[in-house]
């Protein structure tokens, strides 16, 4: 164990579900690690989402390793319930988290990594980046040319319909966030538009998702068939990278029943108003850009890290082969379609923990006959 408060065997950057799941496994062993997070409280990334947000998976499937979600199996947790669950999770397993700590850069000094933070540098033998896939709002450049009188919000800044006047509202992006937000705004009797290619709905009977058979089938598909090791999994990953994820809870039928007008893609601006692919212009008072996020790993100043064409790290199940000692957890489709979700992040966290622990002499703290390859989920 390190005797320094700024030198550790492993530093985990990010105290969300990915970092906490990894911490759960590392905490079972005599491993010297710390989790750094920029938030004031564990779970704040969820607390700042829109007011009515609920998870797209049931409570039964919204758990991290070692701790069930404290709600009935058929309950869709609210964003605040998930935030409180993550905070309780960190407390239950006494995970070493340093909050209010932003990592500005990672560089290498001889045989160790140096992390520049707002307070003091932190050194580590290994680093795991668990900052998730949501870095910077992805808003088209032409949005700057829109009339300043139009209220523009990215989905990450949207809280409720009261942020807009009583005029018309356009939601751009047809995935889960866009679908749920546009239906909520439409319920306030405003004229609403939804712009973009329909990404489709997942034909999954979520009302019976707690059923053992359905749950087993889903687990089998995401655990065996749809992984980056298989042709089917790689094909699905390419499809996800090419557009938004399919909607889970709000369907195209629900959107149209709410009175939403579905319009083509927004391609630009004419006289300060949004212009569609069909050359039509929309006179709206508000826009929600449910257009996702773009990654930014420019703060990782390591020569062995390469980025793909979408800006994400090149890796093998979270292991950066060109930069030994650097790992990732919580990337989109890191290994399966649910890698970035609460439901699926535990598997990837366990895999990375195995790699970390195999690199050192680590013995279980509380289990006398447990080895790394048999970690409990």
TrEMBL record:
Pfam hit, one: Pyr_redox_3
Family annotation (InterPro entries): Auxin_biosynth/cation_transpt (IPR050982), FAD/NAD-bd_sf (IPR036188)
Superkingdom, taxonomy of origin: Archaea
EC number from the UniProt entry: 1.14.13.-
A single MF term (Gene Ontology): monooxygenase activity
Keywords from the UniProt entry: Monooxygenase, Oxidoreductase
SUPFAM superfamilies: FAD/NAD(P)-binding domain
Official protein name in the record: Flavin-containing monooxygenase
Organism: Saliphagus infecundisoli
């Amino acid at each position: 164990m390190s005797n320094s408060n700024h030198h550790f065997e492993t530093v985990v950057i990010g105290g969300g579900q990915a970092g906490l799941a990894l911490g759960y496994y590392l905490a079972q062993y005599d491993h010297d690690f710390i989790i750094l997070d920029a938030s004031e409280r564990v779970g704040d990334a969820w607390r700042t989402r829109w007011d009515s947000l609920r998870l797209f998976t049931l409570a039964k499937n919204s758990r991290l390793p070692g701790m069930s979600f404290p709600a009935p199996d058929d309950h869709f947790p609210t964003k605040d319930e998930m935030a409180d669950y993550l905070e309780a999770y960190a407390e239950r397993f006494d995970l070493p988290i340093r909050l209010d700590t932003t990592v500005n850069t990672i560089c290498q000094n001889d045989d160790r990594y140096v992390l520049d933070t707002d307070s003091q540098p932190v050194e580590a033998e290994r680093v795991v980046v668990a900052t998730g896939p949501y870095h910077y709002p992805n808003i088209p450049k032409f949005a700057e040319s829109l009339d300043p009188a139009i209220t523009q919000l990215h989905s990450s800044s949207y809280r409720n319909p009261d942020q807009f006047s009583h005029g018309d509202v356009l939601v751009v992006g047809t995935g889960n966030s866009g679908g749920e937000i546009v239906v909520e705004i439409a319920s306030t009797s405003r004229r609403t538009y939804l712009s973009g290619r329909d990404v489709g709905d997942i034909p999954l009977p979520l009302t019976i998702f707690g059923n053992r058979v359905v749950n087993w089938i889903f687990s089998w598909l995401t655990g065996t068939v749809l992984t980056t090791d298989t042709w089917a999994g790689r094909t699905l990953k390419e499809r996800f990278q090419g557009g938004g994820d399919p909607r889970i809870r709000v369907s195209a039928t629900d959107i149209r029943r709410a009175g939403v007008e579905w319009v083509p893609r927004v391609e630009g601006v004419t006289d300060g108003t949004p212009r569609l692919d069909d050359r039509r212009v929309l006179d709206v008072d508000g826009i929600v850009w449910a257009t996702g996020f773009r990654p930014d790993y420019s703060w990782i100043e390591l020569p062995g890290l390469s980025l793909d064409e979408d800006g994400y790290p090149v890796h093998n199940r979270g292991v950066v082969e060109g930069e030994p000692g650097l790992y990732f957890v919580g990337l989109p489709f890191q290994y399966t379609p649910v890698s970035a979700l609460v439901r699926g992040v535990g598997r990837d966290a366990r895999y990375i923990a195995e790699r970390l622990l195999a690199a050192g002499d680590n013995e279980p703290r509380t289990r006398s006959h447990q080895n790394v390859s048999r970690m409990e989920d």
